[in-house]
Amino acid sequence: MNVLWYYAIAFIIIWVLAILFRKRLKIDISGPLLMRRTQRLRDFIDSVANRSPRIWRWTMNIGLPVAFFFMALILYLLLDTLPTTFSNPQVSLILPGVDIPGSPLFIPLGYGIIALMTVLVVHEFGHGIISRVEGVKIKSIGVLLLAVLPGAFVEPDEDDIEKSKRISKLRIFAAGSIFNLSLAAIALLLTFVISSLVIAPAFHTDGVGISSVVPSSPADGILTQGMVIQSINGVQVADLNNYVKVLNNTKVGENVTFQTNQGTYTIKAGVNPNNSTRGYIGIRSQAHLVVDNNVAKTFGYQIPWFFYSLNDLFYWIFLLNFAVGTFNLLPMKPLDGGLLLEELLGYKLSENTVQKIVNPLSYILIAIIAVIIVYSLGRGISLLF
C-alpha cells in the first residue's frame, strides 16, 4: 500500500479520537493542528532563558547577519530556478516515507519523522527562549500534531512583542531559523565525525544497492529494496559513478537488463518525469556497504551498523533543519523572513512605505512557490495513482 494511504488512515483515526475525547484530553483544534497546552514546558523555557540572558542576546546578535545572509541566498536560489521550473523541476515533498516520481529527494519514514520533530520543536523553542530573554510573555505553549506529524508550539504575546524595541523583535523573529541552523551545523559536524572515524574504517563497498523503489515507476514490482546491482545491460557497475553514467544513457522505451544478487530482471524504461528526453527506471541507489572482517571479529556486526544508522539520523536532522530553517527566512509574510524584512526596513522607512514593499513581495513569492509546487509535485503525485 502507498505510504500516502497510511498517512490518510492515521489522520482519520487520530482526528476522530481527538474530536471524541476533545474535552477530556483538553485538546484545541485549529485548522490542521491539534494542540494540547501545558505549563511544564513554559517553566523549562523560562529556566533556559534565565540562565544567561546576555549570552543569548549576543548569540542572536551574531545570528542576525547569518539570517539576513540566508534570506538573500534563498531568495536568489528561488529566482534562479525559475527559468528551469518547467523543463527540469527539482522540488521535493518533505513528508517522510512518501516517494514521488521525479522528486530529487526521498526522506525515510523513521529518520524523517524524528528529524522533522527536531525541526518543529527546536524552531518553536528558539522563539520561546529568546522571547523570554527579551521580556516577552508566553501566551501559550504545548505539544501539537500537524495533521499526523508531531511537534511543539510556542505563542509569544503579540502585544508584548509590539511594545518591544526593534532589535528585540529582530532577535525574536530570527530565533526559530537560527536555532534550526545551529542544530543543522551540530548534526553536520557529528555526521562528519562518525563518517570519518567510524564508517570509513569499518566498512567497504561491494557494489550498488537499491535503497528504495519509487511507487508506480517502471521498476515498481520488479526490483526491490535491498537488491545489489552487479551489472546493467552487461556493463559492470562496481561503483556509483559508473552506475550513474550507465543509467544516464538510458533511452525512453529501452529494455534495460539488471543483473542483481537476487537474479536478472528486464525493465522497459519510462519517461523521466523531469526530462521527457531521458529514460526512467525509478530506483534510488547508494553504495552497498559491508562490515570489514577484522572489525566484525572485534566488535561484531551490530555496533558498526548502529553507528551507521546514527550517522543517517544525524544526516536527516541536518538536512531538514537546514532546509526548513533557510526556507523560513524567505522575505515573505507570514514567514519569519517577512517579519524580519519588515522590521529591518522600518529603521529607515515609514510604516506605509514598508507595507508597500513587503506585501507585494510576499504575494509575488507566494505565487511563485505555489506555481512551482503545483507543477512539480502535482505532476509527480498524479503519477502515483
Features:
385 residues; alpha+beta; Pdz3 Domain; six-stranded antiparallel beta sheet; 56% helix; 19% strand
What is the topology?
Layout: H1 3-20, H2 22-25, E1 28-30, E2 33-37, H3 40-51, H4 53-80, H5 109-133, E3 138-146, E4 149-156, H6 158-163, H7 166-202, E5 203-213, E6 228-232, E7 235-236, H8 240-248, E8 255-260, E9 263-268, E10 270-272, E11 275-280, E12 283-291, H9 293-299, H10 302-327, H11 336-345, H12 351-382
Antiparallel strand pairs: 1-2, 2-3, 3-4, 5-6, 5-12, 6-7, 6-8, 8-9, 10-11
Helix pairs in contact: 3-5, 4-7, 5-7, 5-10, 7-10, 7-11, 11-12
Q: What's the end-to-end separation, in Å?
A: 11 Å
The helix-and-strand class reads alpha+beta
Total strands: the figure is 12
Task: Give the SSE order as H and E letters.
Answer: HHEEHHHEEHHEEEHEEEEEHHHH
Q: How many DSSP H or I helices?
A: 12
Question: What is the count of structural domains?
Answer: 2
Q: How much helix, percentage-wise, in residues?
A: 55-70%
Q: Nearest-angstrom radius of gyration?
A: 24 Å
Largest sheet: 6 strands, antiparallel
What can you tell me about this protein's structure?
With 385 residues, the protein is α+β, with helices and mostly antiparallel strands. The protein folds into two domains: 27-196 and 315-382, no CATH class; 218-281, PDZ domain (Pdz3 Domain, Roll). 56% of the residues lie in helices and 19% in strands. The chain has twelve helices and twelve strands. The protein has helices at 3-20, 22-25, 40-51, 53-80, 109-133, 158-163, 166-202, 240-248, 293-299, 302-327, 336-345, 351-382, and strands spanning 28-30, 33-37, 138-146, 149-156, 203-213, 228-232, 235-236, 255-260, 263-268, 270-272, 275-280, 283-291. Strands 5, 6, 7, 8, 9 and 12 form a six-stranded antiparallel beta sheet that branches. A four-stranded antiparallel beta sheet has the order 1-2-3-4. The mean pLDDT is 86.
